[in-house]
Amino acid sequence: MVTDETTEQVRAIAIFRIFDEAKAREFYIDWLGFKIDWEDRPEDQPIYMQISRGELVIHLSEHHGDCCPGARLFVTMSRNAVDQYFEELTAKDYKYNKPGMSSAPWTDACFDVFDPFGNRISFNATRP
User: Fold this and answer.
1) Count of domains in the chain?
2) Which range marks the domain in which residue 67 is found?
3) DSSP character for 126?
4) Model pLDDT for residues 54-88, shown as the tens digit of each residue
5) What angle do CA 98, 103, 108 make, to 5 degrees?
6) Cβ neighbours for 97, distance < 8 A, ≥ 6 positions apart
7) Per-residue pLDDT, 40
């Protein structure tokens, strides 16, 4: 059970469904700049892996039943971090994803990226 006293110790990790390991590596590792922390793939079985970039951790799974495609992860970062990451990604000129910077009622700066499997990551600047 999560209580007010234990929330500082809680860490949530999103699980995204993937269908093609090579496409997932191209998107998450090559373009987004994540690193692979570990992989689990028993012989002749689908892959399950953990990737991370700084404190952001995501699990990627080819296993049926772990999750459904089309999930969304909402990430908050400093305004400076959002601007820098946006510039880093757009400089790579990834032909399958061209994010645009925008604003929303909850933030002055945000952008979304969509992986090849329909999952979405929303990067949002925290308000000062």
Assistant:
1) 1
2) 7-125
3) P
4) 999 999 999 988 888 899 999 999 999 999 999 99
5) 125
6) 27, 31, 113, 114
7) 95
